[in-house]
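[job 0412] stage=complex_fold ligand=beta-D-ribofuranose status=START
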Amino acid sequence: MRKIGVLIDCDPGIDDALAILFALASDKLNVEAITTVYGNVSVRQSTDNLINILEISGLRPLPEIGIGSARPLVKKRLEKREVHGKDGLGDTSLGRPRKTIEIKDGVELAVSKILSKRIEYIIATGPLTNIAEIIKTNPKIPDLVKRIYIMGGALFIKGNITPYAEFNIYNDPEAAKLVFDSKIPKTVVSLDVTQRVILERSDLTGFKKDKERLSRFIYDIANFAICYHRGFRGVKGAYLNDPLCVGAALEGKICEYKKGSLGIKLNGPQRGRTIVGEETGGAQDITYAESVNVDRFKRLFLGSLKKICKEVAS
Ligand code: BDR
Ligand code: CA
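[job 0412] stage=complex_fold status=DONE, emitting structure tokens
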């Protein structure tokens, strides 16, 4: 089967880590490169986290990696929050990566991969600053990318960082607007659907048991997220925001979609809000997920993670 070349742009982050492993496990995707951005943690920390995740995955060959933006296009970076633990990976305290791996410039790496036609999809699971920089770099880029899958926005529900805005879009609304207004075909996977897929403690049966490093790592970070969500948000488990974005890229039937125009508020108390409708003056023809087949997604997601755990253990 021909694999689809993919660039993942992320800010790991627990759900980013799970999304990366999910994508690497897939036999439909060829993860050509992964770039990092500030967001859940600083860009330095998210790059360290990425290298640790790749090292723990035990998978070979590894995608090329690049470090991206340290701050948004216009405004200051948000103060860090601790949803994902102090280190961004559920306080697993992995420290500086042990193995050295070449870290390229994120934007240059992405641009060269796209220009050499190795990337069909971009999967963006962090603030959209890098993607905006990539688009600004070369006018050919929007014609060369088949689709960008964006985890971001709260369309018809409350935000998770302000009452109006979702975290990734709120971090850099100017970048998000530039990406939304670009010619790249877009699929938006917002909180409206991601908050319906909840990872519960019972889903973790089968991980950690075999004392294998990857399966223990998955258990530990997922367990941290489940405890955090239960304690602070009163949810029965952890939202699988970023993995659902990968799921949408992998399988057309995981979500159902609508098309519409999508605007982003840049000013005032609603800054970072994503709004649907003609009157928003927003970008036309954006595909957004409006429902999700939760069982189908969770089967695919958990099955894929178990599969790579087995592969690396054997
Ligand atoms: C998004 O914010 C981050 O904390 C998660 O990694 C996800 O990408 C959800 O709003
Ligand atoms: Ca993320």
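Residues 10-11, 13, 15-16, 39-40, 125-126, 242 surround calcium ion (ligand 2) (CB under 6 Å).
[job 0412] exit 0
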